[in-house]
Amino acid sequence: MVRGSWPRYVALGDSLTAGRDDIGPEGTRIGWARRLAGMLGERTGVPCTLANLARDGASVEAVLAWQLPSLEPATAVEAWRPDLVSVTVGMNDIRDPEFEPGRFAAAVGTLLDGLAGTGATVLTCTLPDMAGMLPLPVGLVEVARQRLRQASDVIREEAGRRDAICLDLWTMTGAADPGLFGADRIHPNTRGHQLIADAFAALLFSGTPGGGTITLLLMSTDLRVAAGRQWVTAVVFGVLGLELAAIVVFAATYDALDFRIYMWGGHAMLGDGQLYLTQAYGHWFTYSPFAALVYAPGAALPLAVARVFWDLLSVAALAWSCVQVLRLAGGRPSRTMVAGLTAGAIVLEPVWETLFLGQINLILLALVLTDMRRLAGGRVADSNTVGIGIGVAAAIKLTPAIFIVFLLLARRTRAAVVAAATFAACGLTGCFVAPDASRLYWRHLFFDTHRVGAPYISNQSPYATAIRIASGQGHIGGWWIAVPVAFAAIGLATAAILARRHDWLAATAVTGTTGLLVSPISWAHHWVWAIPVLVLLFRSGHRVAATAGYLLFAAAPFWFTPHAGGPREYGFHWLVTLAANCFLAAGLAFGGFMAWQAWKTTRWRPEPEPLEREGVTAGAGTG
């Protein structure tokens, strides 16, 4: 045998090793074990022959009773003298109502002892932290998470005692990414099986002396791969520190018009009716009375102090949003990862323009993402308060109210009721403080787009694009109402399907984007929803699209097209028009792609037949 090769490989375990949901072109299962055998043969030059004894539904007791005996001296497989054995168990054990960690530990220990007795290299793995996406009632999610953790702790500890190689899926960043699982959200799909094979291959070829439990943290971005390197951490925090210094200096010295108007609104709130009857610095205050109430405490501070505080609060909200997005993506974000994503996000035009103008978008994003992440977690303790953030965000700026509709369609009725009640309570608070202003706003102004200059190039909504192409607001008739209704129907239906598949990051990104497509006013700084969209694309393996999207939202090409009211700003001018509406084009492309993906995954696919016991030589075509 060539040193560092494994010619004979026997795989034991449950449906994970049996290859369920990894179906090849001929309709037969492949699975991570077969993929691993192929990789080992290719890398060592020595063919790796696989005997896959795993069965769907096998518990640790079933593996001990029916699969392990195949490795005893009296069997044909023993004549092989396997060089590599693997076993995956636990998922079927924790489903047993009488699951008991001590009994499970004893059985796993006995199983690993039997495998170690063959003299072969032993592979095993823990379970991923997938409780949040399992098709379970809310009350059982925490029970499932506790059992997943208990089983993983047992497997890790028992493997460590026997110098077995343990792939620690429980701590692996992104191992619970819904994009790695099939329609049932329990079994890995082809991408998931390939990831496991890649991880085991990395462990086998790592050359770590002395065996022991090995934890592999696969990172979903290049930053995560290097997060443990001190120089990367230093660079990331150095860049973020420079950005923060620039933000503070800018906020202290630049008199942002939008922020000045909002502070004026905080003062005018106490004057009640004057809030919407008087212009501030040549512009109207267009947010709700409750929003003016939110600004009121800052209005009591010196303007420069208030600006610095507001921008630092916005950066903190951005960092918190990055934490929520990474968790929704299935990761366990480290400080370096959060700092890196925050520093990268500040470069995006919607983010820096929010800071430049003193806008509130990053705070609203944090409120909504916090609710969505808590909803995805499925904690019983959160069930009565999820929706408060969405309700507050909608009361400040109406667009987030689309998430209330999403919650209803996703069958999260309690959260929808909490969000709607919070929205109503905030609105009533505004009515109590400023009844005349509230009456005027809710009766006449909240739907009025004439006060905000809808055609301006920064408005990247479908409505604004139609106005620019049609050369004026007067050319858009009553038929237009059908357009946002269609966007809402398609986008919310897509998000609801994704939520039922427990892909909460995708559902959140689609709903946020749908809100931008439905609203008649979607300023460039509103497109902070690009952050979860880009993370979703990267997580799902669409790295070219994610990179292109990042560059697009960083460069904001529409600012380089005519936008001073000249003739080339209006009408249709092919590539110039495309560039002038590039955020909208990106939103439509993303929404269409996600709708197609959701439709594709809802199509019926027959379940594969259980894998028969077989020995196969894994080679080309298994990667």
What does this structure look like?
By secondary structure, the protein is mainly α. It is built from 26 helices and six strands. Strands 5-4-3-1-2-6 form a six-stranded mixed sheet, sandwiched between helices. The two termini are 23 Å apart. Mean pLDDT is 86; it is low at 207-228 and 603-623.
Could you give a short account of the major beta sheet? 6 strands, mixed
How far apart are the termini? 23 Å
- Mean of all residue-level pLDDT scores: 86
Question: Helical amount among residues, as a percent range?
Answer: 40-55%
Task: Please state roughly what percent of the residues sit in beta strands, choosing from under 5%, 5-15%, 15-25%, 25-35%, 35-45% or over 45%.
Answer: under 5%
Number of helices: 26
Number of strands: 6
Rg calculated over all Cα atoms: 28 Å
Question: Which shape, going by the Cα principal axes?
Answer: elongated
The low-pLDDT segments are 207-228, 603-623
Sheet with the most strands: spatial strand order: 5-4-3-1-2-6
Task: Tell me the number of structural domains.
Answer: 3
Structural class: mainly alpha
